[in-house]
Amino acid sequence: MNDQKAVRLDIENAIATVTLNRPEAMNALSQDVWKGLRDIARDIKETPDIRVVIVTGAGTRAFSAGIDLKMVASGGTSGSGGGWTSLCGASSTCSWPSSWEPFSQ
Question: What domains sit in the chain, N to C, each tagged with a CATH number?
């Protein structure tokens, strides 16, 4: 990963724009992207002024190609960290933060 974040969060007025920022990989979901989305979801939850969240992808080729197959083929070790097990633990599935609740008013 270079100096750019895999996921960006821009907040203007009450609108949060979340951008998947891996256009060279058609915004494929790597562990860096998943961690970024998880952290940004927590940030959004803790910012009560946000009323709208827009999720978009950088570049012009794709919103997201889905899971990063190169990372899966390499044993899940592309990007920083130790692969999916370092992100998800020993289980084969990842879950959204347990404290996440839908917005309501």
Answer: 7-87 (3.90.226.10)
